[in-house]
Amino acid sequence: MPPAPKRPGLAGRFAGFSPMTQGAIYMTLAALFFAVMNSCVRVVAEVGLDATQIAFFRNFFALVFMLPWVVSTRFAGIRTKRLPAHLLRGLISLGSMNFWFLAVAMLPLAQAVALNFTFPLFGTILAALILKEKVRARRWIATVVGFLGVVVVLQPWSVAITWPALIPIAAAVFMALSSIMVKSLSNTEGPSTIVFYMNLVMTPLSLIPAAFFWVWPDLETWGIVALLGFFAAISHVMMTRAYVLADASAVQPFDYLRLPFIALLGFLLFDEIPDPWLWPGAAIIAGSTFYIARREAQLARAHRAARAPQDTP
Fold first, then answer.
1. What pLDDT is stored for residue 71 in this prediction?
2. Does the pLDDT of residue 15 top 80, yes or no?
3. Is the Cβ–Cβ distance between 187 and 81 less than 8 Å?
4. What's the Cα-to-Cα distance from 97 to each of 216, 283, 312, rounded to whole Å?
5. How far apart are CA 217 and CA 49, in angstroms?
6. Which of 132-146, 215-229, 248-262 has the highest mean predicted lDDT (pLDDT)?
7. Averaged over 88-114, what is the pLDDT?
8. Among the four 127, 219, 262, 265, which has the fewest Cβ within 10 Å?
9. For residues 61 and 221, what is the distance between their CA atoms, to the nearest angstrom?
10. pLDDT in tens, 282-313
């Protein structure tokens, strides 16, 4: 008997769609998997694991789940001449991750996600300060509008701002720094290589602070932290595929589905009801960051067109 035909993988199932549609599907899946990952973080935080230990398990299991890819490329996918840059990026990403997991453990999930959407706004500021990029008036206006959205989420006129509300914003600053490093690394490194070295660098680095707060998980918690690493790895792969298939400005709006996904999971799993002010504030933040992403894509296309060789008669 002839062998049974192999079932197509995820990429094969979407192959009949346009690149834009495929990118939208992958980014939607990434948003869903990120939401599930953050729910796993909250669950293990509630059983007593410190944020530093959660970060270690996330990195360790994400690295484990990437090993089949390393073997399939016969280690060609991890060749690099930029180890110092990967190390610096890993240090920055570790700071971002620890702040973020602490925020997820201490704040309502939807509020933490909404405030963390500010990282493209900080990316604009840091790109101007560090990369000396020329930021024009419209992007600065969008950045200011985005921070007004933060004010709406925080509601300083009705409640006192407590320090935990600043943690996801601190995570966003480190995420913006990390994105600048990724821009530099992507000139010579592939997306999977960048993700692999991020996990390879952060796994031993995150073990150092985790050792000071170490608590041995029970069997059920081991399963949850393994799922945490799995969803962390697969969400990054989905997001990378989305950016490969379509312009960032076209697929980024689908990343904002993280907020309704996480709000739903927060309600179902933790009985969290989002504050009514969260939604308009999140919409303002999302709108401003989407404008910045769209503007950057337009400028990048114009730059590529200007550098392309011109036809001569």
1. 81
2. no
3. no
4. 21, 24, 52
5. 8
6. 215-229
7. 87
8. 219
9. 13
10. 888 778 877 776 766 666 666 667 665 554 44
271: left (phi over 0), alpha (psi -120 to 50) or beta: left
C-alpha 214/C-alpha 220 separation (Å) is: 17
Phi, psi of 214 (to 5 degrees): -65, 130
User: Looking at this protein, which amino acid is placed at residue 114?
Assistant: A
Which pLDDT does position 252 carry in this prediction? Answer: 67
In which region does residue 161 sit, left (phi positive, over 0), alpha (psi from -120 to 50) or beta (all else)?
beta
295 and 138 in contact (C-beta within 8 Å)? yes
User: Among positive and negative, which fits the CA dihedral 155, 156, 162, 168?
Assistant: positive
95: three-class secondary structure by DSSP: helix
- Rounded to an integer, what distance in angstroms lies between the CA atom of residue 1 and that of residue 248? 47
What is d(CA 313, CA 298) in angstroms, rounded to the nearest whole number?
28
- pTM for the model stands at 0.74
pLDDT band at 68 (very low <50, low <70, confident <90, very high): confident
Query: Any idea which residue has 């419209």 for tokens?
Result: 138
pLDDT for res 304: 64
